[in-house]
Amino acid sequence: MPSLTQKEKKSIKEKIENDLIRLQEQIKILKEKTQPISPDCSLGRLTRLEAMGEQHVNNKVLDESEMRLIRLKNAILRIDKPMFGICIECEEEIGIGRMGVRPESVRCLVCAKQH
Ligand SMILES: [Zn+2]
To answer: Is the entire prediction scored with pTM above 0.70?
Structure first.
């Protein structure tokens, strides 16, 4: 028996597609923000340190966003397969609650916490 109904899969697919668009926009903005700070720019020392700190944070967010983008793209490839929505550790259903929020999930909440 499939763990998710066709209707649930359809709404998950729509969410993935929306998330992909949002993420791609976010990544584009972050890439602009993480351009190297030129050494001769007229920022003061403190402002410059702040800018570098901010850039560090942006780089982290960019990495995470790119990872999530890959996971979401994988999820959309898996969505029509029987293992979609099934935990790869315990093979129990992940459940629409979690899949609806994080459609890229491959583990149920219990296994994700242990992992
Ligand atoms: Zn599990």
So the answer is: yes
